[in-house]
Structures are given as structure tokens and as C-alpha cells.
Amino acid sequence: MNKNIRIILAGSFAVVLLGILSACGSAKTTTTSTPLPTGPQTLPIIDTTAATPNYISVNAETNQNYTFNIAANMQNASVTGYFYTTGGAPNLIEVYLMDNATYTKWLKNPGGQSTVLYDSEEMSSGELNKANLSPGTYHLIFSNKATADLSAAQAVVTKVDLNWTYAQ
């Protein structure tokens, strides 16, 4: 092929390629994002009042664990709610709220000294209200410490919510 024709073809190709790239680069990409809701937010951690059956069953010498997370953009996070037992002798339950680090220690030694955020102690009913929780992973635990020979499963009716507002 003639050297002049190759130069013309190469130049034409470059012009066409530059035109295509310019057209692609000049196209505008728009992204839309949904703004975070404003005002107080609530998310159920557990709500047996809306379920069938309307209780959780906690066998003797066992725990029921409900894990939830608080994100960095969740301000003024708190956990609020109530619980009460409806069956099983001695009709007592213990409820704990703890962060993930404490939970790990507690699993190794449930009777040991751990700093928990909330400890109801053994009771048949109670309320939970813990405010100013930092971002992280948390555990809400229902514990039936009764021995199997003394107690049947505890039926616990409960409604516990995570409350917060989003950082804007």
C-alpha cells in the first residue's frame, strides 16, 4: 500500500476515534440518591405481639440471642421495650443488652463478671430503656437460668425497638 494512503487512513482513523471518545466523554451521567429519612426512626428488634405464637420460648438453661447493628450515621440510638413471662415455673427470665465485645466474654463465662449495658436480673416482667448507644453490634439476650429439672420453657412476650435519627 502506498505510504501516503497509509498516513491518510491512519489520520482518518485517529479523527474518527477522537470523535467517538469526545462524544462518550461529553455524555453526562446523572445519579440520583434517595435522601435519608428525617425525624425519629424505629425498627423492631423483636416483636412477639405481631407473631403467632405471640411469645418466644426459652428452654431451661438456654438463651435466645437477637443481634442488631447500629450504623455510624444513626444518631441518638436507643433500645426501648418491655417483656413479661407467661408460663413455666418459676416464671422468671433474665434479659441482657450488651455490645459485641462483652458478649464474646460473656459466652466464655456467663456467670462471670461482664459489664453489660442492661441486666434485668431474674424477674417475671420488666422494661428496657437504654439510650446513647454507639455504632456497633449489639446482643439482646433472653436467658432462662432455671435448671431443667425445676423449670419448663419460659414463654416470653416482648416488644423491643431500636430508635434513632439519621445524621444528615
Strand content: 35-45%
DSSP, total strands: 9
Order of helices and strands: HEEEEEHEEEE
By secondary-structure content and strand pairing, the structural class works out as alpha+beta
CATH-level-4 superfamily name: GOLD domain
The main sheet comes to: 5 strands, antiparallel
Integer average pLDDT:
81
Level-1 CATH class name: Mainly Beta
Molecular shape:
globular
**Helix content range of the residues, please?**
10-25%
Distance between the first and last residues' Cα:
66 Å
Question: What can you tell me about this protein's structure?
Answer:
This protein is of the alpha+beta class and 168 residues long. It has one domain (41-166): Jelly Rolls. 20% of the residues lie in helices and 43% in strands. The chain has two helices and nine strands; from the N terminus they run αβββββαββββ. The strands form two sheets. Strands 1, 2, 4, 7 and 9 form a five-stranded antiparallel β-sheet that branches. Strands 3-8-5-6 form a four-stranded antiparallel β-sheet. The longest helix is centred in the N-terminal third of the chain and has 24 residues, at 3-26. The termini are far apart.
Write the layout of secondary structure elements.
Layout: H1 3-26, E1 41-47, E2 56-58, E3 62-70, E4 74-87, E5 94-99, H2 100-108, E6 118-119, E7 125-133, E8 136-144, E9 154-166
Antiparallel strand pairs: 1-9, 2-9, 3-8, 4-7, 4-9, 5-6, 5-8
